[in-house]
């Protein structure tokens, strides 16, 4: 049972500050994903939590106890690394048992814990094999087994699936989430893969250049991105952005863009003349001969269950998810409509949601 709390955490390497003012609380049992592009500081925040990196500013609390200066061994955490860090000369059993042997647990307890973890992780048939005799997914499970047997209060995962192929990655993310549903150990999981974040997290912490951009459930960050940056980062096809000026149209606000008029939800807090950026997901764009947005078709990418129509708009690429049987002429002007409640509006100057 554990909470993790960051209170105004900052980090500098020498004179170079890479993170400041990180504050949030991870509740007991939560599965929290730190998400952001390479270099945004997510691994550093995880390593500070583990005690592998010092905290330059602020307080780090695990279950209410300040652990800034507590040795990694005494923080009651277990970490799974990207490269698994298995010992190649030890069999699976020994790899999983290693930390318990170092901690001098009774052999009978070690055996019980290793066998229990192996059973949960479907590793029982492989206990006498060496890591090199395992598949990538099995190695990944051994790495999780090593964390599990320690019965730590917090699990930390650092991009644990990035060395696996796409299919196995999808499978392992389900397994890790199922494991969490069974064990309910407070978990912090670092990734730059928004699909992993969306499918696994109770809460996502979106990071940008050493700061938090938004914290929310997967639905929060998808349906109500706090900034253009978050809207751009979340979603499996790239969101379309169209810039324009707010005008009044038929008693409601609308945005005049170079691709056409976008009607907005009347409840939005915008002012006439305001320069804004409209974000519209390709799934929220409908091909409609009476639509007010125009873009020129370039090609259609068939993805099995649906298709993506790639167009060229006045501000660059414009994407629409369309029926897979749809046919379009190349380089034809296509009209689209967009429901007002599907438009994400950001102030053009601040790029924050209005
Ligand atoms: P990635 O996904 O590429 O691992 P990340 O979001 O996890 O990226 P970090 O590894 O936390 O990012 O790095 C954040 C920033 O801190 C980067 O600009 C990086 O260059 C810098 N940094 C990390 N470790 C050190 C170090 N030991 N010394 C100096 N700068 C560092």
UniProtKB/TrEMBL annotation:
Location, primary (coarse class): membrane
Keywords, comma-separated and alphabetical: ATP-binding, Cell inner membrane, Cell membrane, Membrane, Nucleotide-binding, Sugar transport, Transport
Secretion signal, residue range per the UniProt entry: none
GO molecular function terms attached to this record: ATP binding
Domain ABC transporter stretches: 4-234
Record bears the keyword Nucleotide-binding: yes
InterPro entries recorded: AAA+_ATPase (IPR003593), ABC_transporter-like_ATP-bd (IPR003439), ABC_transporter-like_CS (IPR017871), ABC_transpr_MalK-like (IPR015855), ABC_transpr_MalK/UgpC-like (IPR047641), Mo/tungstate-bd_C_term_dom (IPR008995), NA-bd_OB-fold (IPR012340), P-loop_NTPase (IPR027417)
Family label: Belongs to the ABC transporter superfamily.
Record protein name field: Multiple sugar transport system ATP-binding protein
Native source organism of the sequence: Pararhizobium capsulatum DSM 1112
């Amino acid at each position: 049972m554990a909470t993790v709390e960051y209170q105004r955490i900052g980090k500098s390497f020498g004179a170079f500050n890479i993170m400041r003012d990180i504050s949030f609380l991870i509740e007991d049992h939560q599965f929290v994903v730190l998400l952001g592009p390479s270099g945004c500081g997510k691994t550093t925040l995880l390593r500070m939590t583990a005690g592998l990196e010092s905290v330059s500013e602020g307080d780090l609390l695990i279950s209410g106890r300040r652990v800034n200066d507590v040795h990694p061994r005494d923080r009651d955490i277990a970490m799974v690394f990207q490269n698994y860090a298995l010992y190649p000369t030890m069999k699976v059993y020994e790899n999983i048992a290693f930390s318990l042997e170092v901690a001098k647990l009774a052999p009978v307890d070690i055996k019980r814990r290793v066998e229990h973890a192996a059973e949960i992780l479907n590793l029982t048939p492989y206990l006498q094999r060496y890591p090199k005799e395992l598949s990538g997914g099995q190695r990944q499970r051994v790495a999780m087994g090593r964390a599990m047997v320690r019965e730590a209060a917090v699990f930390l995962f650092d991009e644990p699936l990035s060395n696996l192929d796409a299919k196995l990655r999808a499978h392992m993310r389900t397994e890790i989430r199922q494991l969490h549903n069974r064990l309910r150990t407070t978990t912090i999981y670092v990734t730059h893969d928004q699909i992993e974040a969306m499918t696994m997290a109770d809460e996502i912490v979106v990071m940008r250049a050493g700061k938090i951009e938004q914290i929310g459930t997967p639905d929060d960050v998808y349906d109500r991105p706090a900034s253009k940056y978050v809207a751009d980062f979340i979603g499996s096809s790239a969101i379309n952005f169209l810039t324009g000026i707010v005008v009044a149209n038929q008693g409601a606000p609308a945005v005049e863009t170079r691709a056409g008029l976008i009607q907005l939800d009347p409840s939005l807090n915008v002012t006439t003349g305001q320069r804004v950026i409209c974000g519209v997901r390709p799934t929220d764009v409908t091909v409609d001969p009476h639509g007010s947005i125009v873009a020129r078709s370039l090609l259609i990418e068939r993805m099995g269950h649906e298709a993506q129509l790639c167009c060229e708009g006045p501000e660059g690429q414009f994407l629409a998810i369309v029926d897979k049987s749809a046919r379009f002429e190349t380089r034809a002007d296509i009209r689209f409509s967009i429901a007002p409640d599907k438009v994400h509006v950001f102030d053009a100057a601040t790029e924050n949601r209005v």
